[in-house]
Automatic annotation (TrEMBL):
GH10 domain mapped to chain residues: 227-524
MF term (GO), any: endo-1,4-beta-xylanase activity
GO biological process, one term: polysaccharide catabolic process
Keywords tagged on the record: Carbohydrate metabolism, Hydrolase, Polysaccharide degradation, Signal
Annotated SMART domains: Glyco_10
Domain of life of the organism encoding this protein: Eukaryota
InterPro entries hit by this protein: Galactose-bd-like_sf (IPR008979), GH (IPR017853), GH10 (IPR044846), GH10_dom (IPR001000)
Family: Belongs to the glycosyl hydrolase 10 (cellulase F) family.
The organism of origin for this protein: Oryza nivara
Signal sequence segment: 1-45
Record's protein name: GH10 domain-containing protein
């Protein structure tokens, strides 16, 4: 059967043919030649469609209905199953026509497997013109219930023909043969959005979650409305924590300190709290630099994140700790928590308790599976006011790292919760190459279902890009993070070292003149604060405006009467009402 006319945007593939070759490109090219194509209806317009933030992390006995009623895959609701043979495993695949490079695509479906108890399933998109493929979403899937996969993609260039397909990856050891496995999907959806629509969704969420409507009502001493009173509102502080890493190089550097304080209300120490920095030799603790950095942060009314108590990567474990085992190691880790948290009790709003434990297991490998549970319990007792985090990389950055997929993160949280840990925060590092923004949003949607604070803790863009490209990618990541309702704070990983270099991305040069990434930060900070709002009361004696959350100074003047005060804007769906009474001074 012919594939069909080019104006068709989607077609499903099903097959009972011989297994395809394992390589993505060869498999999918052969797939197009061998498989029967079910023609799709013309795609529905995305005009007026709002982004759907719904996501699920629980496995369900029955799949939920498709988001957007299936979007341009609307036809999928009428076909019971799509399966194509791929290395002996049956998997769905979809042919997509006339895909635009300017379009943002949001994909979701429900997935179930037959075969091993648990497996990771990846959804990928292949463009046939250049045989380039990219991962667009993953799900940790079971054979006894339906799991939700959500992701998305944009294309580097327009594609006449692309294929959306699925890959199967064993997640845990099972007796079942992978060759006997099949992947089934339900409620598949692919929804296109124009860049303008995607950006409008961000602005709508910013208004809903980062701003609040205010009504200032002015009356005279008799309670009568005052029409034409001049109202001036000035923002004093920002509610949303936006900060950067700092290091010892900021100490004594007045230019650096002024540059930092002008922009940021949060800080994290790049290395100065890590165990190898505070106790390089057993019993030889030195908190001098950390103390000085904390004093600088607190003197400027910023909040500080504690990073970190333990780093599971053995490469960054103190050399002397690597040689310890059994009771000696237990005593050392207990001493580390007690020393660090007793010294800084109440000083840090967060602690990254176990850093990068989705990828490494230095302590659990030596102390047993309950080691992390013990770390959290001990830390909570030592500093009850601090919010305790896991922190890891490649959760939002890439789709191919199964160790740190959204579902892997959730699975690890639930394992530790079963051991008695009460989780309080999710740390996502955010060391990006080229960001896949719709995938970032989809991961935040999934993790947001846990109703825990999510922080983007170490945001930067790879130095493999030129400064202008770094800045463009950084802007997209920051806009996405700030707009997402589940994100509670953003930290940049842009501490300047002694040689005026940074881990991957600097915001300024050594003279503290902004680089392109610094210009992006300043532009966004300008957008994300109200600064000054001026107006006059209307015929009802009211002045209405929308302002970012934070602390404000208010001044009202009418003739020779003036009233001044302050107010706070915290998150609420309700309008903030402020009543001002103008009375002659006595």
């Amino acid at each position: 059967m012919a594939i069909g006319k080019k104006h068709k945007e989607a077609a499903a593939l099903s097959s009972s043919s011989s297994p395809l070759l394992p390589a993505d490109r060869r498999a999918l090219l052969l797939l197009l030649l061998l498989l029967i194509v079910l023609l799709a209806r013309p795609a529905a317009s995305s005009d007026g469609v709002r982004y759907d933030y719904r996501a699920y992390t629980e496995c369900k006995s029955h799949p939920e209905p498709a988001l957007y009623n299936g979007g341009i895959l609307r036809w999928a609701n009428k076909v019971t199953d799509f399966r194509t043979e791929d290395d002996g495993n049956y998997s769905p695949a979809f042919v997509l026509y006339n895909m635009s490079a300017a379009t943002v695509y949001s994909f979701s479906c429900w997935v179930k497997i037959d075969g091993p108890t648990t497996a990771h399933v990846k959804a990928k998109i292949l463009t046939l013109a250049n045989a380039a493929s990219q991962c667009l979403g993953t799900a940790l899937v079971r054979n006894d219930c339906w799991s939700f996969l959500k992701g998305g993609f944009t294309l580097n260039s327009a594609s006449e023909t692309s294929v959306l397909y699925f890959q199967f990856a064993i997640y845990s050891l099972q007796t079942a043969s992978p060759n006997a496995s099949t992947i089934s999907i339900r409620s598949a959806s692919l929804q296109p959005f124009s860049p303008e629509q995607w950006n409008q969704h961000r602005e709508d969420r910013i208004q809903l979650n980062r701003k609040r409507f205010v009504n200032v009502h002015v009356a005279d001493s008799n309670g009568s409305r005052v029409v034409g009173a001049k109202v001036a509102v000035h923002q004093i502080t920002r509610d949303f924590p936006f900060g950067s890493a700092i290091s010892r190089t900021i100490l004594g550097n007045k230019l650096y300190q002024e540059w930092f304080n002008k922009r940021f209300n949060a800080a994290v120490f790049e290395n100065e709290l890590k165990w190898y920095a505070t106790e390089p030799y057993p019993g030889k603790e030195d908190y001098t630099v950390a103390d000085q950095l904390l004093q600088f942060v607190q003197a400027n009314d910023a909040v500080a994140r504690g990073h970190n108590i333990f780093w599971e990567d053995p490469k960054y474990t103190p050399a002397w700790v690597k040689n310890l085992t059994g009771s000696q190691l237990r005593a050392a880790v207990s001493g580390r928590i007690e020393s660090l948290l007793s010294r800084y009790k109440g000083d840090f709003v967060h602690w990254d308790v176990s850093n990068e434990m989705l990828h490494f297991d230095f302590y659990e490998n030596r102390l047993g599976g309950n080691a992390t549970v013990d770390f959290f319990d001990t830390a909570k007792r030592a500093d009850p006011l601090a919010t305790l985090f896991l922190n890891d990389f490649n959760v939002v950055e890439v789709c191919d790292d199964l160790s740190s997929s959204a579902d892997s993160y959730v699975s690890r949280l639930r394992q530790l919760a079963d051991g008695g840990v009460t989780f309080e925060g999710i740390g996502l590092e955010g060391h990006f190459g080229k960001p896949n923004i719709p995938y970032v949003r989809a991961v935040l949607d999934k993790l947001g279902t846990l109703r825990l604070p999510i922080w983007l803790t170490e945001i930067d863009i790879s130095s493999s890009f030129d400064p202008k490209t770094q800045a463009a990618y950084l802007e997209e990541v920051l806009r996405e993070g700030f707009a997402h309702p589940s994100v509670d704070g953003i930290m940049l990983w842009t501490a300047m070292d002694t040689n005026a270099s940074c881990y991957q991305m600097c915001l300024t040069n050594q003279n503290f003149t902004n680089l392109p990434a610094g210009d992006v930060v300043d532009k966004l900070l300008g957008e994300w604060q109200t600064k000054e709002t001026l107006g006059t009361t209307n015929d009802r004696g009211s002045f209405n405006f929308s302002a970012f959350l934070g602390e404000y100074k208010l001044s009202v003047t009418y003739l020779n009467l003036t009233a001044e005060g302050t107010f706070s804007l915290a998150h609420s769906d309700d309008t903030k009402h402020i009543n001002i009474r103008l009375s002659p001074s006595r």
